[in-house]
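Recall the central idea of this unit: under ordinary conditions, the amino acid sequence of a chain determines the structure it adopts. In this exercise we apply that idea directly, starting from the sequence alone.
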Amino acid sequence: MKIIKLWSMICILLLALLLGSCAPKSSVSVPTPAPLPYSVGMEGGRGDTGAGVSPVSNEERMIVRTAELSLVVKDTEESVAQIKGIVSTLGGYVVNVRLWRDQDQLRGSITVRVPAEALDEALSRFKGIAVKVERESGSSQDVTEEYSDLSAQLRNLEATEQELLELLRTVREKTGKAEDILAVHRELTQIRGQIEQLKGRMQYLERTSAMSAVTIELIPDVLARPIAGTGWRPSETVAGALRALVQTLRFLVDAVIWIILYILPVACLVLLPFVALWLFWRRRRSRKLPAGSSPNSTPLDKSL
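Accordingly, the structure predicted from this sequence is:
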């Protein structure tokens, strides 16, 4: 009977959690949590200090902003150094840098993150180092609704966690049976796993909305390209010509070896039956001719 009552209590708690997560937001009655220690990536308001998760009001929106730039620059390496300096000044950081050569010109791509409130200033300063802005694009995503849903789910799960802890304490005091304790502990572990997933997602939204990502493509200026290609050395041309000559001579020698050792023997084997047939035919024809006449004689020779 005790086990049945225990499972009944667990089922009631899980049912209450399910109904709470499926119900509309207006019907969810939860205590007001303490505000966040800071309000990250929200426009139109500041968060108060404290512990916990604060719901987002209508005036505070959580926006994830990203931007892409394609800049024509005189010197790629110098431009990368300038971008790093700008990012450091604004309190951001560099995510990755990639440099490669294309037709003796150094091209690059750099991804940085800057504070969301300084994104416009950062874009303006990035474009200031370019000879020409080839392309510019940006996007924004409002994640306020998702963050609010996660907050409501987190509060429900934390309330269920507290109830399961009370149930676990009661089971230990009254029954003390290992199987009852393990049953409650399994449910508690599952709830805690869901809480950690929600917190991780909420922290990701906070970070991405607080720090905007900017990807910059650096294209070398065509006018800065030298008229004559750099790195030309006559010694390399001579070496290339000698290598080509050696390859040609090697090909000719290989061809002679193949002709002598392979093509001629095979040709002899193929032609030998035809030569033998021709000689046999010629001998039979000479036997059919009258005595004293040659195979090549004509009727005129006979009359004479």
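Strands lie at 42-43, 61-73, 93-102, 105-115, 132-142, 211-220.
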